[in-house]
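Worked example 3 (structure in, sequence out).
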């Protein structure tokens, strides 16, 4: 069969790599892909933008694509799956209406409240003065989120009032996020530990993927601005077996049922960002209507099942007959970024030290990379690479990943040095 992956990031490289491992797959096209996907066996880049829905429908029809997997959120919000469905083409992902769960934080919060799914207290604002008054009344710490899509950069976890008020100013007055920031959600600050919980959904049933934990802050020790993610590990040590069942019962199943009741039947990957309190209670921070990035990279490294078969089963409505098989080892992913990310950064620098031959249990997934005119690989984005490794413990996976990271260089390269630190501390018995 022929597969098509939509997108150009590290998540899409991982999806294409996993799809190409299927014995049933002849070739995987990636639109538009990156320098890493272009070098993968059985994978070929296609010079079409991820948001060019008509051209991608035409390509899938002309090349007789058997299955398309949509990686990023923007094409889903544009109705890519709806367009493929109308053309009689199989496409894995939620419809435009179902994708509003990520496309609007205000919609998401109201949905959670309507269906009794635990989440933080919140208010929605379009008036900056009203937002400022509410923030002064509630005090800090407090969280300010722009309503629409902002590539993971529209969330401010404000530890003091000045930070919160600046976030309101940026969104509602300065229009720093454009249309995405015309509304903001102000919500209570939650204490605890975050976890990423991803599942495949077939409209009625959900098949859980391995848990993971992202590191959103740019700098070591959870300092600096929020990013799209600077690293992840799997499984998330905070998600115990009992916690896993509670997430399924209190969050995932009610969400799938609630969406169906509201005429938004959900098929595709679903990501729940959760805050797990010290006492074990949990609340939903956000939903994504696709795999997380960089969580996807480390989770797919651990997946032993055939990804294509899982997606086929979801589209056929028979996930209840399957279970996913996982490598028992831990996986860890370190994002290597361009200096200055998530703000301004320079591009066009040549990457050196990339492994010529892939090492066992290690993988470098590309994101913001391209070839220059001399066939050198250069950085063209904020998040450039995700370096992944497997190990018997998180500490061993961490050591392997950073050994590889420190061999790779370009002018301005930046990365955190502490990915997985919570899990490593648990392994050492330093925290419960």
């Amino acid at each position: 069969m022929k597969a098509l992956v939509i997108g150009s990031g590290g998540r899409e490289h991982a999806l294409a790599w996993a799809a190409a491992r299927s014995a049933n797959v002849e070739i995987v096209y990636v639109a538009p892909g990156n320098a890493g996907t272009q070098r993968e066996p059985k994978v070929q880049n296609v010079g079409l933008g991820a948001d060019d829905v008509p051209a991608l429908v035409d390509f899938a029809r002309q090349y007789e694509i058997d299955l398309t997997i949509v990686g990023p959120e923007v094409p889903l919000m544009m109705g890519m799956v709806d367009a493929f469905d109308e053309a009689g083409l199989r496409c894995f992902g939620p419809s435009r209406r179902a994708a509003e769960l990520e496309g609007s934080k205000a919609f998401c919060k109201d949905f959670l409240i309507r269906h009794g799914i635990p989440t933080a207290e919140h208010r929605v604002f379009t008036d900056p003065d009203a937002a400022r008054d509410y923030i002064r009344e509630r005090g800090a710490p407090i969280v300010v989120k722009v309503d629409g899509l902002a590539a993971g950069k529209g969330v401010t976890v404000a530890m003091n009032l000045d930070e919160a008020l600046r976030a309101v100013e940026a969104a509602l007055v300065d229009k720093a996020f454009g249309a995405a920031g015309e509304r903001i959600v102000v919500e209570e600050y939650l204490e605890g530990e975050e976890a990423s919980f991803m599942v495949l959904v077939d409209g009625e049933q959900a098949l859980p993927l391995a848990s993971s934990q992202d590191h959103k802050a740019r700098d070591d020790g959870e300092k600096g601005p929020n990013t799209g993610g600077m690293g992840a590990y799997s499984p998330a040590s905070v998600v115990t077996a009992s916690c896993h069942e509670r997430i399924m019962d209190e969050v995932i199943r009610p969400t799938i049922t609630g969406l169906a009741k509201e005429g938004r039947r959900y098929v595709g990957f679903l990501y729940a960002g959760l805050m797990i309190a010290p006492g074990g209670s949990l609340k939903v921070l956000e939903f994504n209507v696709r795999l997380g990035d960089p969580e996807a990279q480390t989770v797919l490294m651990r997946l032993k099942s055939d990804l294509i078969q899982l997606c086929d089963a979801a589209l056929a409505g028979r996930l209840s007959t399957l279970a996913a098989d996982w490598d028992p080892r831990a996986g860890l992913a370190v994002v290597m970024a361009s200096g200055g990310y998530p703000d301004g950064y320079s591009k066009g620098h040549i990457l050196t030290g990339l492994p010529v031959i892939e090492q066992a249990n290690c993988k470098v997934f590309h994101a913001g990379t391209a070839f220059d005119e001399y066939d050198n690989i250069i950085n063209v984005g904020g998040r450039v690479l995700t370096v992944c490794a497997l190990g018997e413990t998180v500490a061993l996976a961490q050591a392997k990943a950073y050994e590889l990271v420190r061999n790779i260089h370009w002018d301005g390269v930046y990365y955190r040095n502490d990915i997985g630190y919570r899990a490593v501390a648990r392994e050492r018995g330093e925290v419960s």
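Notes: Residues 241-261 form the longest helix (21 residues). The chain has four domains: 2-95, 121-188, 193-321, 330-428.
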